[in-house]
Amino acid sequence: MKFTYSMLLDYVSTKLTAAEVGDLLTMAGFELEGYEEVNGEPVLDIKVPSNRGDGLSVFGLAREVLAKDSQSCPTDLYHKAVNRFAMPDDGDDGETGCLTSVKIDTTDCSRYACRLFRGINDAETPEWIRHRLETASQRSISLLVDLTNYVMLELGQPLHAFDLDKLDGQRIVVRKARKGEKLTTLNDDVHDLNTQQMMICDASRPVAAAGIMGGLDTEVTGSTQNVLLESAHFLNTSIRRTRKQMGLNTEASYRFERSVDPEGVVAALNRFAQLLAEVVGDESRVQGVVDIYPGKVTCKPVQVRMSRVVRLMGMPVTTEDARGYLERLGMKVTGDGEPFTVVPPSWRPDIVREDDLVEEVGRVHGYDLIPECMPQGSTPQGGALGIYKRVDILRDAALSCGLSQVISHSLRDFHPLDKPNTKRIGPRNPGSPEMAWLRCSLLPCLADAAIRNGGKDLHLFEEGKVFAVEDGPVERKNLALLSTGALAPSHWVKGEVPEADFYSLKGAVETILASIGVKPEFAIGDDPRLHPTRQAAIWAGKKQIGILGQIHPDVAEKVSLPMVTILAEFDVAKVIAASPEKLKYRQVSRNPATRRDIAVLVAKTVSYQTIEQTIAKAGGEVLEKQWLFDVYEGKGIPEGSHSLAIALQLRKMGSNFTDEEANLVRDRVVSALAELGATLR
Amino acid sequence: MQTVEELEQQALADVESALSTTELRDLEIRYLGKQGLFTGLLRQIGQLPPEEKPKFGQKVNDAKARLQDAINAKQEGLKSGERAGQYERERIDVTMPARPWRVGKEHVLQMTTNKIKDVMGGLGFEYFESPEMELFDYNFGALNYPPDHPSMDDQDTFYIDDKYLLRTQCTAMQGRIFEKRQPPLRIFTVGRTFRNEAVDRTHGHTFHQIDCFIVDEGVSMAHLKGTLGLFARAMFGADVKVRFRPDFFPFVEPGVDFAISCPFCGGKGCPVCKNSGWIELGGAGLVHPNILERYGIDTDRYSGFAFGLGIERIPMMAYNVDDLRHFLENDLRFLEQFRA
Lengths: 681, 340
Known about the structure:
Chain A is α+β, with helices and mostly antiparallel strands. Chain A is 30% helix and 26% strand.
């Protein structure tokens, strides 16, 4: 809320400077968002919290200054405002009741009051009011409009002036719009109305959108002689719905959406009348106020315990101080003991329970006085435990494999690497087409990151959520890897730098999974995003936990990634589910190991996994380790076969292997392999 | 036949004039080896009268010992000379470029998250995660939002359907914890949040938050201030002070906006803090009693505090990063600059 500082000084007599008042309001919860000097006069821009509609007025902020600073004093005008600018004709319809009538036909309007003025002619806005409005960047329009704006700024109550002679039947009906009705608002927009929308109507038609904006047909102009001035109170949810539907957002609707004091309705009419009288004389005012008030609210008393105030704030506050703060905020405090009773004022609908008052006392006393203490009491084990710890371990393992971490947007567009056969999900109100869908795989993100960084010699991973619709919307945590190009940075020392391939990333996959004890198996895969004959489905236990493979050549072309780009992706929950809970220690032998190498000629159709398992079975317990150290095909090898050189490491517990024993194991392995059609070379 | 003295003289002269350790090794074998000249000399012992035998043997052995000493001394000298030559031949230019190791770099937001986990974990807060695609009720209803609160608007929140939305705050985790656990509770999360916002240097539709809460007997605003003070000093430096300003969030009462004294100017005022001396970081307060009651927690016995803030702010302030958008763009030239 932006206002000229001199308006505040009308209400508060203070030694503080404008900047100091700004700081004080900030520490009361009304943040000073802007401070400028216009024509040598300070202008404050205050951010008012959404639950404090009473702060959207100079009078309301003056109340906060007086509550916070006991050195500042209220002025005469402040006292008048407290007394609602009382006028002798307040409680009576008088002549006004003869000239017009108000009918409320909807529960969305809790109060509607009006005053009439006649013989306005085309008087001008007094210079001091125009100056104050313009200094606070409000355009001066005409006397009547300027006064409604000025009073709203002062008291927070939106007002609207109708040209009485343009109102059919010279009367007001507050009701919901009827089907087919239209309203042209002051800004010249034509609105087709629906039956949810509350309108101010005359005898025949809508003339204003209640609490939002007046209608063009009945607006006051230079030729207006007779005026009906509206001051009303509306249900905030009704105003919000209608102004959203109409696409309007005004100073009036902004205040009604938050809160306006229902007891201040007539006060605003009176303040307007008093300001107008200063310009055109009091004889223009028609005697009496029409005031229809079906929705009078009662303020429920709240009990406060000082012990709770002190305990929750964590700082000492005396009962006397606390009661003083609450009284200065306009609360009625009764009872001497513990608890005492507080009746909140009509402009504070946010005060409904004890802790709301704990906040009021603490806020006025000053949060700067709260000391810093560490929490006492029971301290459970902290940090990342269980599955969260395992996710940390997986991530660290990926880093230790030399993969760099990227973190990408979840909201994105389609991509050729999206998970196939997946029902996608996205916000029904996307910000833009580029962010219309939630990712269903992390591979598109990694591809984008790879492209962004030049598309070659990259080794990346990402951990994050993916989304899809299955029985309902589902969200999973995935871990994905991308590797392409040189496995080490190039250098000048002799020797080629190895390039990433299926087997290098397979090594990373095994290392990462091994970090939490998962031993994967690799079966032939059928993911359409990957090269048809260079991909694997990764299994652990009885479940598929992920995929690994070279990018499909068509996809590589489409997204401009190298043909040899290797991808992998896991479902982290499934990986963790395959992770053994317990690890068991195995005793190590102190005896030396013996090595036997074999080279076998075998058809390529026999998978290495079969060979490996056959060797393991034939070798038995003494086969500590086996590894493939050479693969040869070409000259001297029949078409469709290859020669595999495999090392066998043998070791026993408690005694050494003799040559004869080692040879026996080797022979056992060789004859087992012979059953697969493998022959010794 | 040479005498012992003659042989020793000749051997010492040869050793003296040896030019390399290889030559010296040859001399050692020639004179002192099993088949060496001194061994040959000893064979004369048979021709000597018995009373001279021990004396002769002693003489030969003494000469051998002296020769061995001379060889050892010469060896030292020759070796250090030869090493010096070797060193010169093997000289490298240490300023030549390194052979780089490939290492995986952690993302700067991950580093920030890890640091937060260390600090909060050390204070006994347990780490949890909850869904990014959250039920409306956990994001708003369970957090004491009045129906029709403005932040529920389509303009502010991404909705999947009437039930699900993309969480606008990590505070959405609270209800999920309260459903399963009873106080005392010390919980925190770090996660991704979404707002339907126009993107610029300081606003994104996707960002990350830490959210933390405690419920125990006697928890007060002073404990909140102490915890936030410790957290802020761990993140932003030892001299940082915490300031509370009243603010409104539906899920806390009292509610505050917390700021830290500007770590750049020490609170004197500078462009980073827009001359205010303070930098606002996030929202905090005591857990609203309506929420505790909703989960059957006795508000006379228990109270709690909660706080949350955007974690991008932490590296932005620590490293003077001026554009929020860098964090999710994954330009390695940006990411490789940071360290834990």
